[in-house]
Amino acid sequence: MKKHAIIPIFIPHRGCPHDCVFCNQRKITAHGASVSAEDIARTVDDYMSTLSAMKLETIELSFFGGSFTGLPLKEQSAFLAIARAYKEQGVIEKIHLSTRPDYISVPILDNLKSYGVDVIELGVQSFADPVLRASGRGHDAACIYESCALIKEYGFTLGLQLMIGLPGDTEEFDLFSARETAALKPQLARLYPTVVIRDTRLYEMMEAGLYVPLTEEEAVRRTAAMYRILTEAGINVIRVGLKSSDIMTDERNTAGTFHPAFRQLVEGLIAREDLCTQIDALLAGAGTKNATADDGDGRDERIVIALISNEKSRANLFGHRSENRRFFSRHYPQVTFRFLRDCQAGLKLADGKYLAIRM
Questions:
Q1: Which tens digits make up the pLDDT trace of 82-126?
Q2: Residues 301, 293: contact at Cβ < 8 Å?
Q3: Distance of CA 111 to CAs 40, 74, 162, Å?
Q4: 3-class SS at 164?
Q5: Which CATH number is 4-260 given?
Q6: Positive or negative, the Cα torsion across 280, 281, 286, 289?
Q7: Of 71, 130, 294, 306, which cross-links 75 as Cys (Cβ 3.0–4.6 Å)?
Q8: Which residues contact 224 (CB under 8 A, 6 or more apart)?
């Protein structure tokens, strides 16, 4: 059952005078109109008409789509006053916002603290200065470290967002960014492969041959490696890839660089790599010759391995559109695989004919 819900408030291209090469906020958020304090109250009331009937542990009011702390302080305060009122009434539990590393300062954090803000996410994108410069970010990596230190000093929950495959990026830079993120120990992280959007400088660079997007395979591979670094450091990766609702997904707008199931591609690859390590160990170990069964089609007896999953991990076991099943069949032609649910495993394994791997 769902335990956490977010009430999103989109602030398109508000509070950010920068024009990063990848950014066209009008298309990223698909919300072009300005937001008023009254709009926020109306959005919360609309969401709560459904959420109030659900047994949720946490409801967050989250400001997305722009650099919130780049707004005039008076406007920030007007928005936050409404959020704080809902929090004091017990309608929501947390206030969550996203911004840029160079829009963090002591006065800004003092103001956020006074209104009960809980979570601050920074759009870091990269810790590599060459990538930040090539992407037109307008700040260097030193700014990121300083802002993270201040946010943690104030006791906010810290989240960091990274992008993969920006101009000037390399696999080494991406892994460096993941390791630096892990060292800073944020509680939350998001990983976004670069999506090329029309009416951006990045699109123009691509059209001129000055930028080549990562292939889907390379983007998935790099992101999976970064995901491992972050999760092994105990960081909750709350998003991998953009949601369809975050972007106008027409291929003409995204130059074919958007995949709606990107997280599943990444988690499916990680599951496949982990399972291959275990399968290889089983096949190399003693006793595999006893784990055989007749396929029933007249062929010689083959090694049989049961891959066991619960319902939550079953999608990653199979992979996106059963990609992992096909991979295992091609990569291990000497093995017959049985894909079992936990509830089936006891009965199926009782005769000792199967080797078993649990996800």
A1: 999 999 999 999 999 999 999 999 999 999 999 999 999 999 999
A2: yes
A3: 19, 10, 26
A4: strand
A5: 3.20.20.70
A6: negative
A7: 71
A8: 266, 269, 270, 273
